[in-house]
Structures are given as structure tokens and as C-alpha cells.
Amino acid sequence: MGYAGSLAETLSALEGLTHQRPEDRPSEEPQLPDADVHSAALSWLVSRPDGVPTDAPATRRVGIRDVAAIRTAAGFFMQLDFQFGGGHAHKAFRHYFREDVLPLLGAGYSDKVGEALFKAASEMSQLLAWSTYDSGNHALADRYLLSTLRLTQVVGDRMMGARILANMSHQANYLGQAGRALMLARASVEGGKAGATPRAMALFSAHEARALSTVQDRKGAARAMNEAERFFERADSADNPEWLSYMDEAELIGEFCHCFRDLGQRSEALRFARRAVELTDPKYARTLGFCRMVLAQSQLLNGDLEAAVTTAALAIEAGDALQSARFQRYVGDFQREVSVHAMNPVVQQFSRQVRDAMDRLDDE
Known about the structure:
Largest sheet: none
Structural class: mainly alpha
Helix content: over 70%
Order of helices and strands: HHHHHHHHHHHHHHHH
Number of helices: 16
Shape: globular
Number of strands: 0
Distance between the termini: 34 Å
Oligomer: single chain
């Protein structure tokens, strides 16, 4: 599955994806190869908007209230994702998108309504892609992300398209695909410049910093973090879409603490992780869980084993309701890091807590 050549191909691909469950991971379905991803990023970067297809015969007329309903649903689903993880409500996401959103794209609408409709549909499709990624099915997430990127091309939604590239970079970075992550992050920054707000550009630059930190480019990561800070200083100078509301100071500081952890800059990692935990609103439960685990890793980097285990234990206790493969991996990574202290009673108690938490998840 490559970058679709037409809207019809894109919608067909998205409809097919909604019939697949993230928990079903066929071993024969690999992630998309680098060549397909590079080609898609380039195609999007040099693309021109398709334009809203307003000439199709349709028995239904879409109005702005229909678009408002999709945006309201997207906000609701996004909060579910943040609070309970991608595995919690993905079935409902898929059903709503397939039954209530995709049919509207083939209905009748004015240019104004059509543009708003396609932007709202891309927003919902992005949520499907992200929750699939968070659920741990990376092959399926790849395909959602690529199709959503193509969907943004219809009305030239450069800000959402750049966000999709940033999401793809985030996933590649998570999977250790450093070169792919860096290419996608830079495509996001370059592609977003023409149509993204400063708040969005701060997000895209932060993802570039994350990728540069993974490849241990301290100078490049520092430059990208400085750029993200400068963009964020002007975050309120433009009207931002509702989907960008989560990109606040806590989110930016949280991205930076990941960077400093990956670069092994112990004091900065500890300072930024503490600040991220302090600032993150508990309604973003998954983000708070990540920041606490990075704080635990930073405390470990600084030689404070007991504080690190206490922080990680709090993250697991507070994140008990999260159905997130990514959060589980953060916990697993920390477990491996403290395994050299396996005979320490504090670490043994922590290991028992992790086993109990995993057992509860299995019971659900």
C-alpha cells in the first residue's frame, strides 16, 4: 500500500482499514518499507490540493452542523485516548468513522462545508491512526497514517498533514528507526511552515529534537529545542484548531525531558522531567504516566535508585486504567534498567507490583 493517487483510492483504503482490529496482528503484514514512506512524504510536500469534489450526484446534503458533530465526537474520542489509552475505545472510533464520517465525504456539500468536512474527517482519521499506534499494531498504524496524510491533500490542510508526518516520526523514533524518524520530522517542519500556526510549529520542531536526540546529535537537538521554544513563545498569536489544545507548556517540557534522557544529560533530564510531571493536567493520564516514567529513568541516571522506583511505582498505580502498549513498554524498559539491582528489596517489591498490574490488565 503506497501513497494513493486519488481520493477514491484513499477512501477505499480507509474503509478497508476500519474493518481491522489493532489487536489482530497478522505476522505476514510488515510495516511499510522506507521507500514507500519517503515517497509519500515527498509526494505530499510537492502536492497541490485536489479540491473539494462538489459535482458528485448525491441524495444527501451535508451541512455545517454535520461537521460540528464530527468535531465534537473527535474531541470526545481524543480525551478517551489521552485518559484511557488507544486500546480502550478503538472499536467505537472505527465504527463511528466508517458509519458516520466516510459516507458524508461522498455526499453533497458546498465548497465551504466540504473544506470543513474534509478537515474534520482528517482529524478523526488521525485519531484512529494514533490509537492504533498506541495499541501496538504498527503495521496497521502505518497504513492509517499514510491514508490520512493523503486525505489532508484534498483541501491542502498543510497543518494537519505536517502533524501526520510528525506522528509518523514519533512512531519511527519509538521503534528505533532513527533515520526514518529524522526524515519525517524534518518533512513535518518544512511542510508545515506555509500553513501552520506557531503552536503547531513548536510541536513539529520538538519532534525533530526527539529524533536528533535519538541519533545523539546534541548540537542539532539543542537547535531544534530552541526553535520549538521560540515558536511556543508565540503560541497564542494565532487561532489554533481544537485538536492542538493539548500542545501546552507541559507537553513541550515533556518532549524536552525525553530528549535530555536520550542524550544522557542527567541534570537537565531530571529538571525537565520534574517540571513536566508538575505541569501535566491529570486528564492527560497517559502523558502523565510517560513523564513519570521518564522522571524515574532520570532519577536512575542520577544514581537515586530508591526515588526512581518510588516514582515508577506511582506511575503504574496512577496508570492502572491505561490500555496503552506504549505505556507498558515504558514500564518494561525501566524494569530492565533496574534489573541489575534485582536483589534489592525495593526493586523486588516493584517487580511484584508490575506483575500484579499486568495480571489485572489480563483479567480485563
